[in-house]
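Q: Hi! First time asking for a complex rather than a single chain. Here are the components, and I think there are two in total. Is that enough to go on?
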Amino acid sequence: MIKFPKPIQDLIDQFCKLPGIGPKTAERLVYFLLKQNKNEIDEFALSLNQINNSVVKCSICHNISEKDPCAICADKNRDHKLICIIAEPHDLAAVENTGEFKGVYHVLGGVLDPLSGMTPDRLKFDDLLAKLQKNKVAEIILAFNPDMEGEATMIYLNNLLKSFKVKITRLARGMPVGSDLEYTDEITLSSAIKNRKEM
Amino acid sequence: MIKFPKPIQDLIDQFCKLPGIGPKTAERLVYFLLKQNKNEIDEFALSLNQINNSVVKCSICHNISEKDPCAICADKNRDHKLICIIAEPHDLAAVENTGEFKGVYHVLGGVLDPLSGMTPDRLKFDDLLAKLQKNKVAEIILAFNPDMEGEATMIYLNNLLKSFKVKITRLARGMPVGSDLEYTDEITLSSAIKNRKEM
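A: Yes, that's all I need. Here is the structure of the assembled complex.
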């Protein structure tokens, strides 16, 4: 088995480490790159080096950014009394893209999942508590995936933040746009009925 | 839309250039990398640089290799009178992995597909003819995908090589291992019937 020259095999192995990329796909990607101009490969390598050298974590919200503090935390036009707690930096992009949210963020760094080793000490809870003690916060929005780990994290956060007498909200559950009544699961549909709105 | 810091967006764009990777997958891959150790990202960048610096094309068979000539062309134990013509370097790996073939290769660099601009002048036909004029070749195996472009390339090669009085063979068509009679297409099944073998 296997006859690839070492540099090719090394790059295949690198691609294989990425989520959702198996050996066959990795092979295809590497052969695609080999057909490209050398400059293109150089640019790719450069981009990788760039994220190592110019991406930092914002010390306030733990988002990934070019500067510390990040553009959102440094923006005085945003409402710093409104904090949206999210699991990962990519969730921030999703919330930002709606254009609905004008507050600031706090990136927890994951969700509670003790079986996979994600215990409370590995998430940025301490930082969040320190932030609440220092600043006046009016509302906290919990924006987590409505799955088991997300729900557990929200329940944990709700208990943790009870003593601060801050308003804690969560994203509404209901039917997504373009979905089909017939195929909507019971929990989602019952949430949608409970939270029905007047027209 | 879009709130990614420039280095992240650049890397997303680089991943998007790869086949089968869309913006959402690229985003996921970049966020995955951002969660890794900086060394891991460095290694990835290094691997990319490596294939730029240490991978060459074998001047004899046009395969991708660390040396020129490649290990297969330089191997005196292989039968240099038996040439397997393939479209791309990754087809070589597939044939090699069977362990059935002990000859040498000639990588055409693609298949004929005039509508996509793959005309005969862009493939390594001249080189193949020069090789046949210079060396004694006993048999040529055409190992192309049995699709329209592959078949067209094999017909073209067959016409081109007729004058050399060399034995030209092609890979057998038939039912792949583990397939189902019921779902086999007619052309494959009729090939399998025509080429039936005594037990």
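A: The domain at 6-54 of chain A is CATH 1.10.8.420 (Helicase, Ruva Protein; domain 3). Let me know if you'd like any chain examined more closely.
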